[in-house]
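Entry 14: structure prediction run for AA_permease domain-containing protein. Input pasted below.
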Amino acid sequence: MISRNLGAEFGSAVGILFYLANAVACSMYLIGTTEVLLTYVAPSLPQVGNAEQRTAADMINNFRIYGTLILLLVFAFCAMGVRFVQFFAPISLSCVIMSILAIWAGAFAADYERSPRICMLGDRLIKVERANRANLTELCTKNDTGLLWPFYCKVANGTTTCDPYFVNNKVRLVPAIPGFRGDIITIMLMVFSDNAFPAYMSKDEVVPDHKGNPRIEVVQDIATSFFILLAIYFPSVTGIMTGSNMSGDLKDPQRSIPLGTLAAQISTSFVYLSFVIVFGGTIERPLLWDKCHSLTDDVFDFYGSKFLDMVKAWAIA
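Run finished. Output tokens:
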């Protein structure tokens, strides 16, 4: 398609870049699929390393093993020809639609009262081990029996000295994901206003311009900026390229390409922008900062169970 419109010279140059881009994108999608599979869908599958203390090197080896297996499966599908790929496309599309609906439903399935709680000291998110989360109400206090006291206070010669930030700020339990239920407009505007503006941080910062204590506070493992976050987010919104990838298989390209491009632009823009509103209006900002999943296991358990209940109810009906 490119060669016929631009000529062989331009077509080959653009085609090589397009091929390399798709090759890199394929590897990225394989890694993402493997991570979701091993972390959420089937964590009981055999994996390299100890389940309680799995390192980054262990996960890299898991990516290599399971990524290769998934790549072979994808290769088998492609080797069966375009007809089989087109037959499989509606199945893939249905999975994508279910995922989109699950995200929208999750925003309304959550509510202020039943949301998992996170422990906050001022505007700093406190790291709580999974074993202690059942007793979070007793541990998230300033008492000497609480979780925070040993990290912010010390006793020397009978005198207790505490960190000034610990003394001057309140410790409180906050709903991690208040959701859209209840007073939807008020809650959404309140949460969305907190998330509306950028707050880029450097490595080991707990909030912008303040270093944190990684033993008790959720800190950033890398420095962030607009372009770093753009590089992370951009691959998730490249689904529109699927149309150009299959342009050579179209029956009437002159009609289908303009119509399909406009329809794809409108539909994908709506979905992606709605996700910005859903995540930005229902999730507390400190939890969005928790990139290393210090606290998100309980949140996933909460939403996973709610979504499964919804699927069961739909199936019974």
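Notes: The radius of gyration is 24 Å. Will compare against the previous run tomorrow.
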